[in-house]
Each structure stands twice: as C-alpha cells, then as structure tokens.
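Help wanted!
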Amino acid sequence: MYDIVIVGAGLSGLSAAHNLLRRDAKLKLLILEGKDRVGGRTLTQDVPAAGGVDRWDLGGQWVASSQTHVMQLIEELGLVVYPQYTKGKKVHHMGGPRAKISHYTSSMPSYSLLVLLDFVQFIWKIDRLSKSVCVEEPWRSPDAVRLDSMTFSSYIEQHVWTRELKEEMAVCSRAVFGVEPSQMSFLFFLMYSAAAGGVVQLLETSPGGAQEFRVKGGTQQLSERLAERIGIERVQLSSPVTAICQGDDSVEVRTLSESFSCKVVINTCPPHMAAKLQYQPALPADRQQLSQHMPVGHMTKFIVTYPTAFWREKGFSGEIVARPSNSCPFSVTFDATSPSGSPALVGFIAGLQAHDWSSTKLEERRDAVVSSLVRYLGPEASHFIHYVEKDWAQEPYSGGCPVNVMMPGMLTYFHPSLRRPFGRIHWAGTETATEWCGYMSGAIQSGHRAALEVLARLSPHTLSQEERKAAQGPAQPNAQSDRWSYVTGYSPLPVALTLTAITLCATLLLVKPQISRDVIGQVIAWLPARVTKRVVP
Amino acid sequence: MYDIVIVGAGLSGLSAAHNLLRRDAKLKLLILEGKDRVGGRTLTQDVPAAGGVDRWDLGGQWVASSQTHVMQLIEELGLVVYPQYTKGKKVHHMGGPRAKISHYTSSMPSYSLLVLLDFVQFIWKIDRLSKSVCVEEPWRSPDAVRLDSMTFSSYIEQHVWTRELKEEMAVCSRAVFGVEPSQMSFLFFLMYSAAAGGVVQLLETSPGGAQEFRVKGGTQQLSERLAERIGIERVQLSSPVTAICQGDDSVEVRTLSESFSCKVVINTCPPHMAAKLQYQPALPADRQQLSQHMPVGHMTKFIVTYPTAFWREKGFSGEIVARPSNSCPFSVTFDATSPSGSPALVGFIAGLQAHDWSSTKLEERRDAVVSSLVRYLGPEASHFIHYVEKDWAQEPYSGGCPVNVMMPGMLTYFHPSLRRPFGRIHWAGTETATEWCGYMSGAIQSGHRAALEVLARLSPHTLSQEERKAAQGPAQPNAQSDRWSYVTGYSPLPVALTLTAITLCATLLLVKPQISRDVIGQVIAWLPARVTKRVVP
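Answered by r_m:
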C-alpha cells in the first residue's frame, strides 16, 4: 500500500515526487513509467561528432531566464546553462514560390515596408489580446467564447494583410506547437502566449525568450538527477499503466503485469495518452470531452554534426527560417554547437510538414535536409559527420511533441476539468501549467502544484495556510450561471443601418441646409402645438 | 482461426457480416461486441404508457425515403415505417432573453422580414457551398483548406446578420451533431450536408428530410433481425476488444479474457473508441491524428408518455424549437405517439446543454423538461405517465451520440486515412460513410463498403469486375503533390490599394476632364519622341 503512485517519470512526475518527499520524507511513493527511461519529452543522446562523440538533446532543449521553475531546478541540481549562439547573418526565405533568400542580422527579418507594417500591427493586436486573457480560468477572459470559437487561422485570415506574413505565422505555429494554425483555438494561442509572458517571448532567442539558453550536457539530466535524489528504487521503468480503479478508501493502479494500491494518484500523461487508460469509475463527461479536444502536435527534430562550424566562418548564425516547399522539410534551424565545441546544426520538421515527411524513408529526409542546408548555407553543408533525428509521433507513451493543443470550444466548455482532481486522481503535466505551459518549466510548475494538492490531502501539517488555500484551486465555477447569455452577440445589421441613416441625415444637413430647415419646419408645423411648445420654447 | 472478426455489433458491423455471408456462406466470421446487446447507437425499450406499456427508440429513430440503404434493409427485413406526425401548430421560441413564444404551421418559422431575408441568403450560401464539396475526397473540394481552417461558428459570425438566426443555427448544430458550431470544421459541416443531399434535408420532416419516417416497433429491430439472419452464435456479446495485433499471415484480436485469430478485421468502433484499443504494430501517424481530431457529440434523449395526446387536441404538432436558457434543457421536441396510439413526446438535450445538464440529478432534469413543456404546450403537460431518458455520453462503448464530428484541419490533412485499410484492418462505422454519414443509413452503407473490401481480399470470385474496382477505393492521394501551393492565398491589401487607385483616377477623369487632359498631355510631352510616335500615331 503506497501513499502516492505517480504515472509518468517525466519532469512533472519527478518534480511532484521531489517536492512531496522534501516536505514529508515518510511518504511511501512509487513512480510508474511506460518508457525504459526517465525524462518524458526530454531525451539526450550520444551523437558522432567532430570530437569523436558528444551529447545532444533530441527533445526539449531550450530554457529561458524568465522560466523561473526550470532555472531554479537547474541551479538546485548543479547544472549549467549557456546562451544560444545567435551572432551573424540569419537566413530568411519566405513569401511565395518565387521568393528570394534574404539575410539579416537584427532581431527582425528584412521585411518589405508593407510586411513590416503588417507585422507590427498584427503582433500589437495579438499581444494586446493575450494580455487580456486569464491563464488560470481562460473562460473568464473578455470575449472568451468568440475568441475560442475561431481557429488561429481564422484570426490570421481576418487580420493579416500580406501573404508573406500569413506564411510566416504558419511557420511560427508549426515551430512552436507542431500544428497548423487551423488546428488550434485562437483563445488557446492567446492563453499559451500569456502563460509565456507574451507572444514575442515564444519566438525570440533574446533574454527572456523561449530560445535563450541551453543546458550543458543536455536537459534529460534534469530528470536523471531528480530520479537519483528521489531514489532510483522508487522509479519503476517499462511499466505502462493500463487502468486506474478507485475504491472507497484506495486506488488500484494496474500495469500489464502488476497492480499497486495507493491513497492518491498523480496522472502526468499528456491528455491524449491519459484518455487511453481504463478508469473505474469512468472519467466525468467533461474530462472525456477535454481529452477528445486536445490533439498533440507533430515534431521531428534533427541534429547534423560537422567537422567545422563553417557557417560561423562564413558569417552565418546558423538560424534559418524557411518557407514550406516540397524540397525543404524543415521550418527552422539553429546553431547547435556543443559547449565543448563540436559543431552542429539543429532543425525542426514540424506540423503538417512532419506529417508529410514521416511517410518517406530516413535517407530521403536526410538528403532533403542536407540539400536544403547546402542551398541556404553553402556547399560545405553536404560534408556532414552524422545526421540523427527523432520523430516524436513514433515515440511510445508520447505519441507527439511538443505539446497538446486545444481545439475551438475546449477552453470555454471543458477547461475547468483540466486541473480539477477526479476523486483520488490528481492531474499534472506541462499541459496543465499556468506559467510557460508546454515547456519544461511548465512541467515542473505543474508537478509542484499537484504535489501541493496531494500534501493538502495526506500531510496538511507540512503546508502553510496560504499553501493549503492555493492547493484547493479556484472555486469550482458555476457552469450554468450565465452561460447562455454569451450566445446572444450584437447584431451588426441594425447597427449598420442606423449608422448609415445618421450619416445620410448629417450629410444632407451639411450639403443642403435649406432642405433640412424646410423639413424641420414642416415637422414642427405638423406637430401639435402643445408638443411644439415644449421642444421650441 | 476465423476468416473475419468484426469489432462491434451495431448496424455497420452487422450489415458487413450480412453482406459477407450472402456473397460467400462459407466464410468463418465472428462479431465481437462490448455491450450486452446488439444495435450500437440504436436502442428500443419498453416504457410505461397509456396502453400499459409500449416501445420507444432511445437512440436513432428516424429514417427517410432518400436514405436508400436503410430503406432497402427495412423492406428486406419485413419492417414497416410510418410518417412523423407534423400536423398543427409548431412552437418556436428563439431570439434573445426577451423573445416571445411564436407559433407557425408552415415549414418555415414565423421569422420577421429581416430574419427571413437573412435565413434565405444564408441557407442559399451554405447549400451552394455544400454542393461544391466532394464527399469521397473532401480535401479536393474547391477552397478546401480555407473552408477547413475555420469553424462553423466563424462562418456563421461572418455571414449571418441577425442575432436570432445565429441562435437558430446553434440550435440546429446541437440538434443535428450534438456539438456547438464552434466545435466543428465548416468543411465538415458542408461535407455532412452534401452526404445527406443538402443542408435543408438535415433539418426537415418533409419527404426526403432526415426526420421523415419512424420504424414500427423501433429501430433496434434492424440489428436484432440482422443478427438472427447472420446466426446468433456468430455474435459474441459482452466481449470488449482490447487489442488488435497483426502478424505476417494473420491478426489476433484480444478481448479481456479471450483471443481470436483471423485473416481480416473490420473495425466499426467510432473513432474515439477505436483510438482506445492497443494496436500492434501501432496505427500510422495520420490515423492516430485523425482520431484525435474527431470528438463525439453529446446527446441526451428523453421520452415522456401521456394519457392523451393533449397537444394534438389543442392543435399543436408537438414540435418545439426552444432557445437555450437555464430553465429549459431541451433544444427540440417532436410528437412521438406510437403506431398503436400511445401518446408521447420525444426531445433532445444536446451539445453544451447536454453537458451542462448532465451534472444535475435525473429528477431535476425531468422537472425542468416537464415545466418547459407546460410553458410551451399547456398545463396538461404536467400530468405525464412516465419520463425516461438516455444520456449517450454515459453509454459504455459509445461514449456519445449521434456522431463523431471533425475539427478544423482534420478533413484536409488526415481524412485519407478514414477509410484506408491498415494492413489487415478495414474500417467501417457511420463516420466513414459517404451517403448519409452519421445516420443509420450511413452505417449500413459503410458496412457494405467494408464487406466489399474484405471480399476482394478473401473471395474475389464473388465480386463483379466493377465491384472489385470499387473495393480498391480511390487512388491513394499523393499527399505531398502540391500541398504547399495552398498556403499562399491572395493578399487583400495590394488588391484593395490598386482598386482604390483605379477608382480615384476614374473619378478624377469624370469630374475634371481638363485636369486629366493636361496630365496626359504632359506625360506625352515628357516621353521621348520615338515612344510617343508608337502610342499616338
């Protein structure tokens, strides 16, 4: 009989366990993991490189100074970060089939004046909107239902003027979420941006931006070192959970071959994976609908190692943003030279492109990647040492990367069940985070939150009064309160007709004062004397 | 060792089996069903009524003369249909919190002139669009990516002028699909309408419309009689399939306690249920994504039986269309008096309303339904005999009703995997139909199609050359062919600027011909003599 069984030994599960044991070392705790390793969507591997062999991240790799939870953990575990290399020319190739390759060194691509204006107005609009979103309870944001009833793509169609920027936003959507702009709710995009501190933070390598730092030795170390601190004996690998059965006093967590009793479960599976488990009693309807409205992105990451960082020598930073085409699989690449100096490039085949290219052979994809690198950085790109890639859609117990997105209607209708415990089951995972949701930092934050909830249940004495209050979460919304008042929006036609009538009258008054004077005179004459007296004393 | 194992004993699985055995009686065939009954989303039950007890459908209940597959089966099985009762006043209560209850007898609600105009223009637009959609390969329809990048809600926002019609369309969406307009792709709505022969067909009780006929004795009889014809010993109930493992020469289908070997599997589970099975090897990425983009609707159906059909006596047809509010759970009701004359009303709590009301107690829902009936039909409505309801979201191995919808991005990106066999697994179920998709008729059509595919594999001699060709399905699309040419849409700003410039010039020419003549004269004077000669000979 355990106190707590945690499903998943990724960053959220391990952070939860770490926090639980730090507060109450007596807790009997077990972590069950389907994979044969810890780390979830982080994975650090040896790759043949200039210096013989070196380590690279094939999963999550960047952290930022603004990501307090992961930065704190990095420091605590004695790990070191170093900045993403960004010096030199960046390659930019967007804007239709006949677009030219352009180079720039500032933080802003070399847009034409029109596209630049478009970019500024669009980013201003979405950033202002994202600031109005309530991350904890997004359905309470102003205009939530309308924003959640449209796709990100619909908003782009309505508010972006230029074809080039439309394409650019699609590339951003693919690179950040692993999905097309048509495949997520616009309110979700805003909430995700808000959780990161702003739209620009998601895209930038500048201080605070999501691509600011990398971790020396790889990000999987975070999970490995956490597992060591927790105690390896508490982490059982290759044990995929199949069912969670709740009784009156305990929960039974079943794997293919074993069964474990406990008081509380923390389920850290990404929503589409959590939906595959058997639950007894069945999950509530809104939680079931929630997981049906949160598909996972598709991302294939590749590392290409080189004998020399030829791009740096030629004045390139290694950053490429490429328009989608049948010849170039990737959306973006970056310099990935290791801290010990082994030159490498990292790139992402994302969203629909990942989907299209996943049906081709590895060699074909590799050749397409390398010949695109040759096109953008020069012939030296063809003399690589090693090409390695990871298609996260094929990874068992992940099934996709980097994050589960939310479809229209999910945030306003089913979101309350995202973090709400179901009986003895508590939910964690980066999708449930409110700060840097979808990132490693979010995973850690969600683990801390779930640990608080469980401690409030099992060891309330270890918590301060504030923490006990925080662990209860927001008051459960009265779902039916004024739901149906949303449905009735304003009606543009009567408004437009009224405005037109007013404008016409005003024009008439200005252009032909005589007519209006006549009309007013006649109206006054027509009105009964009593009324006239009051109006024109 | 079986030839075929069919997962699911609903209408599609049973129709497939029926067709298979009719063509080749030697086939060894087994149907595995999770529920303890056949019929899937059809269910006929005894309900206390005026005549003691009578039978009503708590699942799918209507058929139409335009639904050839189900009408043919009804005839073949010796069943009888009778028309939906529609005589008398219909109750219509839409259009904002202060809207009045109105009555009408025609097929069109008593709209104001403005709403009527709006209705006509909107239905004309979406019907014309739906006629342009290719049901078999929707991604090939004109403008498919744009139509699939928006929700039905976004299209309504852009093209409906009046608040009342917006509300009306939301009620239609709930009643037909069990979801809000924000929760489905607009292209899916169009394809679904096209598969039914037009938008109006979905909504009407008139000849050919989806609500035209009911089946005497209930629709579950279709499945029961099919099961008898196939042989009850071939249908194994209460045997939920958990895993499908494909080897080189055979497939192993596992339930909780047994395992069956076969050559081919027909999987008729609705997509969100099919996703819960274990597959070895894993389903292809696009099929996995498909099921993540097809949530199921939410529908609760209720039957209220009465001593007399008091509404008929008062001149009502029993049809009510009600605006959503906190007091009225249902969207629509109809007369449901049985062929033997037991008076009853049937109604639907659908979409978000089903979701909201599912958390209340049965008694509370019943009282709210009855008091709404009192409000719309008179005080006699409170003297009911029995109230019975079925929340399909709670039904094991269904999890929702009436149909799985498609989210934006699904149709253009993942749809090809909807009917494409995966190794020895073939797909059926009403969601895979191309005629009356989502209806009983569609389920039967999909069963026929899957049977053809399997016969082409196992007993090709039983098929005509045409059938063999049809069984291959459409040529697999070359997914990458010109996918990325879609991305580049037109750019409205340059077009608008050009049009403005032309308009200004034209206005100038008309208003001040002298100015234009001067300008043209100067331009000609400025041009070199040679060029001028060619232009003005």
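OP: Thanks! One thing I noticed: Chain A has a mean pLDDT of 91.
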